[in-house]
Design goal:
Layout lengths: L2 H28 L4 H16 L1 H21 L12 H5 L5 H17 L11 H4 E3 L7 H18 L9 H17 L2 E3 L7 H4 L4 H16 L19 H11 L5 H12 L2 H13 L7 H26 L5 H28 L1
Antiparallel strand pairs: 1-2
Amino acid sequence: MNATEKFLEKFNNAIIDIRMLAADTFSLLARQLTVGGITKAVDSAASTHATLGGNLATAAGGIAKAVDSAASTHATLGGNLAATAAALTETGFVEREYINHFRTLVLTMLGELPRRGHLTSDFDEMFHINYEKPVTREQFREMGELISKVKEDWTSDEFLKEPPEMIQRMRMNLLQIAEMLDIREKIPTTFDEHDLEVAPHIALLNDFTDQLFSKMGGRIPTYPREGIENNPNLLESAKRIVRNHRDDHSPLALKMLRTAFLENTAQARIQGLRIIADNYGLGQHPYLTTHDIVEGYHGRDSLEELRTFVLTGSTPIEKLEAYLGEIMEEVRAFYASMSQSVQVS
């Protein structure tokens, strides 16, 4: 087994470790009677999940910049990126893989803002996707400008309040990008007017936490006017994760690792929240049932993209090892503080 395969095996084992840690932590929380601590822990878990889209958008923006930068060094080539693979590979950039990474991130973000009839759908059920669509440098530059607008919205605290005008703007920008990638929404003839409504996942999450905390005996506002950073009801370890989701300056490899890691441990968090929600009759809330299904799709696709990314060899294994260690330390600290929250509340 070579160093690359060893790293990927280590990455998969790390996912398993955190899934087990999540299950143990949420089981502990579900057995507690300290409502204040449980509320703080759940709110913190919700905020980290709600802001993961910020990491997706910054990663997509990073890919767009990498494409433009690589193409700029070969300005005389121009034209269709698919015709410039050999020259671009000299710079450590494999164009087809980057286009695939970008497409998967865009599809995942669109999956966060779906039509109601697509709430539990896979990408291929939601869209007609042309995986062979060639993309020019100018198109990628235009897509980069659009994804920057999406990132600006997704990394703002205002997004967490699900303002309709912002949700619509983000979705339209993503659909413009999708059109350039030859991705089109599938609208089955069985869809009625209700199915055509946009049902953003942030709205499902907010409704879930509203109902859960109401049944627990009181609502701690998740997103106060001051935003996440100044929110005393969120664990500091959660704020750290949110900051990293929104960090536009972290290396692209770290963003890709973070996306694949958190998408592949998301189901464990959802199952953990269900353990708590079951105590209050909310175990089948649409937020939980939807995410239990779609996170499986997202995790699968992000893992495939990460594997391809690692195999290109554009980032040394030593750096990937360091990035994984950074992510693991961050996530372990988060679950430790969740457990502590019920002990000190």
